[in-house]
Amino acid sequence: MYPNSFEAPAVPHSDAVPHSDAVPHSDATRPSDSERTGILEAVGRTPLVKLEKIARDHQIQVYAKLEGLNPGGSAKDRPSRLIIEHALASGRIDPDIGVVESSSGNMGIGMAQACAYYGVPFICVVDDTITDQNRALIGAYNARIEMVEFANNSAESRLERRLRRVRELLAAQPGLYWPNQYSCIFNPHAHRQTMQEIWSELPAVDYIICAVGTCGTIKGISDYITTHSLATKVIAVDAVGSVIFGGQPRPRAVIGHGASIRPVLASQVAPSRIVKISDLEAVIGCRILAAREALLGGGSSGAVISALLEVAPDLPSDSVCVVILPDRGERYLNTIYSDKWVDARIASISVVRYLMGEALR
Ligand SMILES: Cc1ncc(COP(=O)(O)O)c(C=O)c1O
Question: What is the bridge-based pairing of β-strands 48-51 and 60-66?
C-alpha cells in the first residue's frame, strides 16, 4: 500500500480518538526491542533519569524525562508518528500528493522523518527564524522547504504568515493533507503515552513540569492524569512574550516553547501553576543543567529547569517532580551555548556569567 511497503498500523477510520487507556503504541501492544522494525519503532520509551544535583539546595526529588532521545531528537517525534500513521491508515493522506505542515523546528523534523519513512512527500513551511541546522535536517529527510517572506513592519506574526502560506498551498494542490499540529487531537493524544511511561516507572509523582507551545504535551499528560485519577499536579512553563495564557506578544529569541497566537488546546488545560520564563532565564537554566548534570538541553529544557528552581522553595518536602526535557542542546550550539550569540541577543555575557556564578554557589 505504501511506497516502501511498510504497512501502517490499524487505527480507527476517523479522527475520533479512543478514550482512556487506548494509548497509542502502549506497552501492552508494542513489540519487544528485538522485534522492532524501522526507526519509528524507536519513538517513545525515553529514559527517565534521577537528577541528584540540579536542585540540591531543595528538599525535593527530581527526575528528567529525556525526550531528546527520541530518534528525530525531540518530543515531537511522538505526535509526528501518530499523526502520519493515523492519516495513512484512514486514507487522509494521498501518498502521491503528501503532507504540508508549518514548523520551523522539531515538529518539522519529526514530520519529515515520519513522512520519509513511509515515502510520503512532505512540504515544511518555515520562516526566517529557522536555524541552519534545522533547515538542513528537514532537507536531509527529503522534505521540500517552503520559506515564507516576512516583512518586519508586517501586522502578521511569523506564525500567521506561515499558516497563510499553508492555506495557499492547500488551495493550489487539492488532496494535500495538513495535520495542523495546533488543533490536531493526535498531537496531545500521543503524549498520554509519555505520562503512561512516567507513571509505570514512578507511581507517585507529585509534580510534572512541562513547557508549552501547541500545548500538545501538557494536554496529553493532563488527560492521562485525569483519566487515571492521579494526584499529580502539572506546572506549565511558558515564555515571557508568549500569549498562550494571555498577555501581549513580544519578540523572543529562544525558540521551542511559547507562541504568538493562542493555540486552541490552551483552553483545554488547567495547570496548577503557570511560570513565565524570560529568554535570559532559559539560557541560564540550560547552562546550569549542563554545569550541574552534564546534560545539554534545548531552550525549553532550560526554561523548565529555571521554572523548577523558581517553584522549588514552595513545594512540600520530598515532593517528587518530573521535568519534561523536550529536546537536546546540540541544536542550540550556535545560539544558547554560544557566548557570542547570547551577548548579542540576550544579555551581556558578563551578566550571564555573574548570574551563573551566583546560581552555582
Ligand atoms: C523544544 C520544544 N519545547 C517545547 C515545545 C512545546 O511542546 P508542545 O507543542 O507540545 O506544547 C516544543 C514544540 O514544538 C518544542 O519544540
Answer: antiparallel
Distance CA 67, CA 54 (A): 18
Q: How far is the CA of 108 from the centre of ligand 1 (A)?
A: 11
- The answer to whether residues 98 and 91 touch, using CB atoms and an 8 Å cutoff, is no
DSSP track, 232-301? -EEEEEEETT--TTSS-----SS-SS--SS--GGGGG---SEEEEE-HHHHHHHHHHHHHHH---B-HHH
Cα-based angle 324, 38, 31 (whole degrees, multiple of 5):
75
**Looking at the predicted structure, is the pLDDT value of residue 333 above 90?**
yes
The best mutation among 185, 265, 300, 304 to test binding of ligand 1, ranked by most ligand atoms within 8 Å of the C-beta, falls on: 300
Half-sphere exposure of 20 (CA within 13 A, CB side): 4
Phi, psi of 322 (to 5 degrees): -115, 125
Please list, in sequence order, all residues whose beta carbon lies within 8 angstroms of the beta carbon of residue 210, skipping any fewer than 6 positions away.
Answer: 217, 218, 221, 234, 235, 236, 237, 304, 324
Per-residue model confidence as pLDDT tens digits over 171-210: 999 999 999 999 999 999 999 999 999 999 998 999 999 9
Beta bridge partners, 239, equal 277
Mean pLDDT of the chain: 91
Q: What's the pTM?
A: 0.92
Residue 14: which residues within 8 A CB-CB, separation 6 or more? Answer: 90
Grid cell for residue 350: 558578563
Backbone angles phi, psi at 119, to 5 degrees: 70, 30
Residue ranges and CATH numbers for the domains of the chain are 41-74+191-360 (3.40.50.1100), 77-172 (3.40.50.1100)
What does the block give as the cell for 78?
Answer: 511522538
Ligand 1 center from residue 250 Cα (angstroms): 18
Q: Whose CA is nearest to atom 16 of ligand 1?
A: 256
> Which ligand 1 atom is nearest residue 255's CA?
1
